[in-house]
Design goal:
homodimer; about 120 residues; mainly alpha; two-stranded antiparallel sheet; 5 helices; flat; DNA-binding
Chain lengths: ~120, ~120
DNA sequence: GTAAACTATGGAGTATAGTCCAGAGTCAAG
DNA sequence: CTTGACTCTGGACTATACTCCATAGTTTAC
């Protein structure tokens, strides 16, 4: 799969794919170079890019994701430490959820108040 | 309330408060100037800053918030249109929640797989 | 065999959201 | 009446995450 195809599949630009590579989020485990130096991406690359996209939508930075991936994929941490690392990430996600719930309540109140106002004005 | 006090209360820097002002998120309805040109902030400013903070934690940009605030506070939209606007924002929030749930499931799976691995290795 | 469409690289430019700094004025305490 | 802590302004600087561009090589279709 050449760069244009994977970019289209994931829904990002070609430049973005190359940018992620420069940032160390994609490496030679995700693609091979043919004789003409073209990158040929594997299914693993698809998964990696989907993960990055998911993480970004959830509000994580590329830096955070690179660190988390590194923590998970190397042997610098024991399995228990890896689990502990990811559990901390889960807590961060919970906090983000709480922020969403808070603003949702805020908007809901605003909307209710506006509806009331519409009802009670002649 | 001078700028240092409100910055401390909200938990942002003085520069950030002034930056928000430049961005049109705070105006003379949020503070008055004394003879020495010092800004004196009101409770309304506190509420506005808390809203901005909430919105940012939820992943909205300053631009989006400025637009939403403008839509809500001017008379360019009818009450019904304002409600419709905010309901669309509610949908965006739902999408963000979904992204969080997705990545949470992903992490959960990873963690489970790692636990399995720990159990089954000698 | 050439034009269109693709790939490569390096580097410049953009938007967002601040952060820092210089130079100047203000205020409260001792 | 000076020292230290505060305020003001304008502008330069930073990090993140792209995006665009020039230049050059490659492949596909006619």
């Amino acid at each position: 799969m050449l760069i244009k195809e994977i970019a289209n599949r994931i829904g990002v630009s070609i430049d973005t794919i190359r940018f992620y590579e420069k940032q160390g989020l994609l490496d030679d485990t995700h693609f091979e170079r043919s004789a003409n130096r073209y990158r040929h991406y594997s299914e693993v690359a698809i998964q990696r890019l989907q993960l990055i996209k998911m993480g970004q939508e959830a509000g994580f930075t590329l830096n955070e994701m690179r660190q988390a991936i590194h923590a998970w994929e190397t042997d610098e941490l024991t399995p228990d430490e890896k689990i502990a690392y990811m559990c901390r990430k889960m807590e961060e996600i919970e906090q983000k959820r709480q922020a969403l719930d808070d603003i949702k309540d805020y908007l809901q109140c605003k909307i209710e108040a506006m509806r009331e106002q519409i009802m009670t004005t002649p």
